[in-house]
Amino acid sequence: MKAVVVEQYAPIDQIQLKDVPSPLLEPGQLRIRVEAAGIGFVDGLKIEGRYQTRDPLPFIPGTEFAGAVTEAPGAPGGYQPGMRVMGMTRSGALAEEIVVNPEAVYPLPEGVAAEVAASFRANYLTALYALSTRAMLAAGERLLVLGAAGGTGIAAIQIGKLLGARVIAAASNSEKRDFARAHGADTVIDYTQADWRDTFKQLTDGHGADVIFDPVGGEISVQAFRSIAWRGRHLVVGFAAGAIPALPFNLPLLKGGALLGVDLAQIPVREPEVQKRLMSQLTAWLADRQLKPVVGHVFALEDFREAFRTMQTRSALGKMVVRIAA
Ligand SMILES: NC(=O)c1ccc[n+]([C@@H]2O[C@H](COP(=O)([O-])OP(=O)(O)OC[C@H]3O[C@@H](n4cnc5c(N)ncnc54)[C@H](OP(=O)(O)O)[C@@H]3O)[C@@H](O)[C@H]2O)c1
After folding, report:
1. Cβ(320) to ligand 1 under 6 A?
2. pLDDT band at 177, cuts 50/70/90?
3. CA 270 to ligand 1 center in whole angstroms
4. Residue 69: which of 36, 23, 34 has the closest Cα?
5. How far is the CA of 277 from the centre of ligand 1 (A)?
6. Domains within the chain, CATH numbers bracketed
7. For residue 287, what pLDDT is reported?
8. Residue located nearest, by CA, to atom 39 of ligand 1
9. Relative to the CA of 319, which ligand 1 atom is closest?
């Protein structure tokens, strides 16, 4: 099969597409023909060996995928050949085939395209978990989304709207702000302007942000916290800007505010029942088309490097997806 193979931790330009043997199927596992794989920020870090845990070399990158079951001896988890699924795994998705345990996949609702399903689970589960379970976002509250045109940002806008919030989307250029507005943001703001906090204050009639969804990090995080409303909740989602900010402790005191961490990887381990409930909610929204996940740009497997470059150069609108099989 064709697969992207990381033989040495290196920048994406040095990573090759290779012919490798299909993975072995162990008892109780499923073989899936991968139709599309979603590329996340973490995948880029893993390839370079810069993520907090390192995959042993050589490895096939890619954590999120959608496709069709081709082998399922004994029907593990009730899955049969031909069923379409979406899944998440530690690695291996940027390949024509993947072998996983049944717990790694969910059935794909009828009529949902593979590209959509491959951009769905990580970002939308992160957004729903963060906004509903951690921040307890209530209808009518003001939600400030940083990095709003990125993969998690656009998911937070859509989930925020489904939960009834008033969404203010912050992004660095007009194309990104238009993209955020087109996907549901009520208002947009250019957070690269020195006076963006004054503009934000006016936009919220002096109230500030009840909830801040923050996948960006760096100096902007501290600035945003300074614009939080009384009893506001700031969700720590990621550090796309690179720097991990340090928050002066007097700010939460003065604002009655809370800093809340979000880690998608720990939800199935520490809160499996919550994950189950949130996934049922997401798949129900997906099935009845209340939620239309945003596919940013779809690349052919041969062009996988371009998918990473687009994300790594801060040019991505939404989530990058690699199409693998028809
Ligand atoms: N906690 C979790 O469970 C969880 C789950 C998924 C992702 N994450 C993390 O969340 C972060 C964002 O993921 P994502 O998928 O939303 O990424 P993304 O699609 O690349 O979006 C990140 C956004 O951050 C902004 N940004 C600011 N400085 C940047 C820089 N130097 N380089 C790149 N982007 C920069 C960009 O918006 P502007 O240009 O508008 O500023 C960009 O749109 C990553 O650190 C990822 O690992 C965490």
Report:
1. no
2. very high
3. 24
4. 34
5. 26
6. 2-120+293-323 (3.90.180.10), 122-265 (3.40.50.720)
7. 87
8. 172
9. 19
